[in-house]
Amino acid sequence: NMYIFHYSNTATSINENYNEPNSLIIYPNPFTSNINLTFYTEQNDKTVILVTDVLGKVVKSFPANNLQVGKNEIVLNLSELENGIYFCTTKANSSFKQVKIVKKKKKKKNN
Q1: Which of 15, 59, 106, 109 is the most exposed place for a label (fewest CB within 10 A)?
Q2: For strand 70-77 and strand 84-92, is the pairing parallel, antiparallel, or unpaired?
Q3: What is the pTM of this model?
């Protein structure tokens, strides 16, 4: 699967500001393969999650359907992206949130 949706009403975030309408929390950052997004929605807006490069080109697009009002958590697999700087954006009818993310290669294990 390219993406997995997790929904929760419990306060388990590493940042307790997730219930602010304009917050978008992404971790780990820098990342090697998956990122976890935590964000808050005030209404059942149709939301899309975009990952763009530094030039603004969309390199990944994920529809985020069936979101609940309140806290939403989503895991995205971005392992196929090249190393570098990207922007992760959530776009809904009534909001726009963006965070800079950095893709780093996995460390090689020495045998």
Answers
A1: 109
A2: unpaired
A3: 0.75
